[in-house]
Design goal:
The complex is a heterodimer. By secondary structure, chain A is mainly β. Helices cover about 0% and strands about 50% of the residues of chain A. Chain A has strands spanning about 5, 10-15, 20-25, 30-35, 45-50, 55, 65-70, 75-80, 85-95, 105, 110-114. Chain B contains no helices and 10 strands. Chain B has strands spanning about 5, 10-15, 20-25, 30-40, 45-50, 55-60, 60-65, 70-75, 85-95, 105-110. Chain B has a 5-stranded antiparallel sheet with strand order 1-3-8-7-6, with no helix packed on it. A 5-stranded mixed sheet of chain B has the order 2-10-9-4-5, with no helix packed on it. In chain B, strand 6 (about 55-60) and strand 7 form a beta hairpin. Chain B starts with a strand and ends with a strand. The mean pLDDT of chain B is about 90. The chains are: A mainly beta, B mainly beta. At the A-B interface, strand 5 and strand 10 of A face strand 4, strand 5 and strand 9 of B.
Chain lengths: ~110, ~110
């Protein structure tokens, strides 16, 4: 079956702009979680959605938000972009949630903020 | 605060030898721990999950141990191959359903 799909793969924005990233999970998976990855840093957990409800949230400012649709597809939005937001944003899907085992990751969306 | 430490420097191993990667955690009592492989420009790929009541888990050439007393997990790749070269991430998980990720160890297997 198809894997996790993230769009766009690459994007360049300027400070102050906002961006929306999309994630389509594996069919049948109800959990989608988002992560920020920067060089030398581990994946930083942003939030998890399960059946359209935010179930967990990491320690990121309110500029980072997300949502999940009834078909389990998820979007994350970053408003008022800062240079430090440049990173690889990864989403992962799972059937039961981030605590139940294997996460399936997409290839990521690489955001560059100028 | 919770802290996950993996070898920050790249690990160079000769092909055919066993590679051993370390994951240490502090101020944390994870209920389970996962290991992932990440290739450059790609998303992580799940390898193994081990729970706190399991001492060891194996999958083909991979073996993971989990020592809750030492607060450490070891990840072994036996008969290593150049194709095993990648960054390996450990991710302990707690009862609050959050995974905290290590920064990863870059493994280089030399032919």
């Amino acid at each position: 079956k198809a894997g996790v799909t993230q769009t766009p793969r690459y994007l360049i924005k300027t400070r102050g702009q906002q961006v929306t990233l999309s994630c389509s999970p594996i069919s049948g998976h109800r959990s989608v979680s988002w992560y920020q990855q920067t060089p030398g840093q581990g994946l930083q957990f942003l939030f998890e959605y399960f059946s359209e409800t935010q179930r967990n949230k990491g320690n990121f400012p309110g500029r980072f938000s997300g949502r999940q649709f009834s078909n389990s597809r998820s979007e994350m939005n970053v408003s008022t972009l800062e240079l430090g937001d440049s990173a690889l944003y990864l989403c992962a899907s799972s059937s039961g949630g981030i605590n139940t085992g294997e996460l399936f990751f997409g290839e990521g969306s690489r955001l560059t903020v100028l | 605060s919770q802290k996950i430490e993996q070898n920050s420097e790249a690990l160079n191993i000769q092909e055919g030898k066993t590679a051993t990667l370390t994951c240490n955690y502090t101020n944390y009592s994870p209920a389970y721990l996962q290991w992932y492989r990440q290739d450059p420009g790609r998303g992580p790929v799940f390898l193994l999950l081990i729970r706190e009541n399991e001492k060891e888990k194996r999958k083909e050439r991979l073996k993971v141990t989990f020592d809750t007393t030492l607060k450490q997990s070891l990840f072994h790749i036996t008969a290593s191959q150049p194709a095993d070269s990648a960054t390996y991430l450990c991710a302990p998980g707690d009862s609050n359903y959050q995974l905290i990720w290590g920064a990863g160890t870059k493994l280089i297997i030399k032919p």
